[in-house]
Design goal:
Layout: E1 2-4, E2 7-9, E3 13-15, H1 25-33, E4 37-41, H2 56-75, E5 80-84, H3 92-101, E6 106-109, H4 117-121, E7 127-132, H5 135-149, E8 156-159, E9 165-166, H6 171-175, H7 182-200, E10 206-209, H8 215-223, E11 228-231, H9 233-236, H10 245-253, E12 259-263, E13 269-273, H11 276-282, H12 309-318, H13 341-355
Parallel strand pairs: 3-11, 4-5, 5-6, 6-7, 7-8, 8-10, 10-11
Antiparallel strand pairs: 1-2, 9-13, 12-13
Helix pairs in contact: 1-2, 2-3, 5-7, 8-13
């Protein structure tokens, strides 16, 4: 059990936010209903809206509010419902404000340092949590939040190099295995935030992510001082996941050789399935978008981008194996079947308690 801003996680498992459209209200609500924290990805949440191409911002905000309401209706007061808002996206602040207005329990923010997040959450009932990959980033965020806003994170997530999607490490250290392991980063982060816990007289719960697969992994990290874990890829292979059945089957059928490190147009490395799109990009082909919605602030946009990551992720969630970008974690090959969220949560919880 973990307390976060007067709310309780009976099972300290956070379902990682996955965009575009992989983790929306249905998945998040069902995870929360089991006592965990379900997370809605805000990245182009409105991709299915009729006016998405013409009015992407309006479509995304409208859809996000609908998905938050949907999640709360499913959760029925249990667990917590959060959003994942990438610092690198356009309309970052407007999106978070809309989520807070909708009563979201927490905002989780990464893909950059969320230095201004407490400007939006302070004084509200919404918890604020940064995603970090090092003790240096954790210390910097705590210092900035402390000096500028007189607050510290309500909780924090450490994302290791085995995660799916965008990664906070250099491509070379991910590939050659020299990126620091979670077992190394966790104690360093706990030491870095300790002065701020003492100053504010409360614990900052730390969750670890990236390579956490089962309850045994969860027990290992909670013994090392983590309050819980964040798991993403395993939730793709659930009946309640908002992605297409084709996406889920691709994860279930994935083998070691099907996982690769890709370069995102925003300049960050990411882990994904080796699909025909990735093979064509590796061969030097470019796929200039017909229209750019400027959804990512760090993207070069238009003719300067090798491909539109937003469009590729949308094709993936629809199940387009040829043109989709299917993000997944390093442990995807260990997943062998699609189960319900309830089954998965119970399995991990039982293993965790047996090994704690």
């Amino acid at each position: 059990m973990v307390e976060i801003l007067n709310k309780t996680l009976n099972i300290p498992i956070i379902q990682g936010g996955m965009g575009v459209g992989v983790s929306l209200g249905n998945l998040a609500g069902n995870v929360a209903a089991c006592g965990g924290m379900g997370v809605i990805s805000t990245v182009n949440a409105g991709y299915r809206e009729k006016d998405f191409m013409k009015n992407p911002f309006e479509a995304n905000i409208r859809a996000l509010k609908d998905e938050i309401k949907r999640a709360f209706n499913i959760a029925k007061g249990k667990g917590m419902v959060a959003i994942n808002a990438m610092v690198a996206v356009s309309h970052y602040e407007e999106t978070i404000k809309a989520a807070i207005e909708s009563g979201i329990d927490a905002v989780i923010s990464g893909a950059g340092l969320p230095l201004t997040l407490p400007n939006l959450t302070k004084g509200t009932a919404t918890a604020a949590a940064p995603i970090v990959s090092s003790a240096k980033a954790a210390a910097l965020i705590c210092k900035r939040w402390d000096t500028k806003c007189n607050v510290v994170p309500d909780f924090m997530i450490i994302e290791g190099s085995k995660a799916g999607g965008h990664l906070g490490f250099k491509k070379e250290e991910i590939i050659d295995g020299t990126a620091p392991a979670l077992e190394q980063i966790l104690p360093e982060v706990l030491t870095a935030i300790e002065p701020y816990e003492q100053k504010y007289g409360r614990k900052i719960p730390v969750f670890v992510a990236g390579g956490v697969f089962d309850g045994k992994d969860m027990a290992k990290f909670t013994k090392l001082g983590a309050s819980g874990v964040q798991i993403a890829t395993r939730f793709i292979a659930t009946e309640e996941c908002d992605a297409s059945l084709e996406y889920k089957n691709m994860v279930v059928e994935a083998k070691e050789e099907d996982i690769t490190i890709v370069k995102s147009p925003v300049g960050m490395p990411g882990r994904a399935l080796l699909t025909p799109l990735i093979k064509r990009l590796n061969a030097g082909e470019k796929f200039t978008p017909d229209r750019c919605n400027q959804c990512l602030t760090a993207c070069p946009h238009g003719n300067l981008t090798p491909y539109c990551i937003s469009r590729a992720l949308i094709e993936a969630v629809k199940g387009n194996k040829e043109d989709g970008l299917f993000f997944c974690g390093a442990n995807a090959p260990r997943i062998d079947k699609i189960v319900s969220v309830e089954e998965l949560m119970k399995e991990i919880e039982i293993e965790w308690r047996e090994n704690s």
